[in-house]
Amino acid sequence: MATPSELIKLDVCLYKKDDVSYEDFIEWITKTYAQEVIPIMKKHGMAKWVQTVNPPHFREPFRQQLEDMKRPLWTVPDYDIVHTYYIRGHDVLNGLRGDPKWVELEEEALKFCNMSIGHIVIGHEIVHFENN
User: What's the CA gap between 61 and 101, in Å, rounded?
Assistant: First the structure.
């Protein structure tokens, strides 16, 4: 039986601002933001960071598939991106939140991200199968 990873997995699901195009948002968050934030994450001991982009053209077809599968109450959220952070402990998050450069980047993110809504999932990953 698989056991949970010792790493904490934190998914942060974000929406872009309505007045920002999807293309501009993805360009900024996966390139500009990523380039600036990675050294800060490394400095504070983050184990791994992954971004999952959620293109709008993926969402509606999958909503239809759910309907075809007779799952009318299931949803496909309109998140534009999901950040997945793998950390060894909550002290990593505390270090990030206290870092002046992180705070500066969070301020910049307000230009692109709708921070009035979002979603967080936190737990441990259990890998049952991985085919390398």
Answer: 39
Integer angstrom CA distances of residue 12 from 53, 71, 84, 121 = 12, 25, 6, 7
Which helix (H) or strand (E) segment holds residue 35: the answer is: helix 33-43
Residues of the chain with pLDDT under 70: 1-2
Tell me the Cα Rg of the chain. 17
28 secondary structure, DSSP code: I
Question: What pLDDT score does 1 carry?
Answer: 58
Q: Is the dihedral of CA 27, 28, 34, 35 positive or negative?
A: positive
Can you give 66-117 as a three-state secondary structure string?
HHHCCCCCCCCCCCCEEEEEEECCHHHHHHHHHCHHHHHHHHHHCCCECCCC
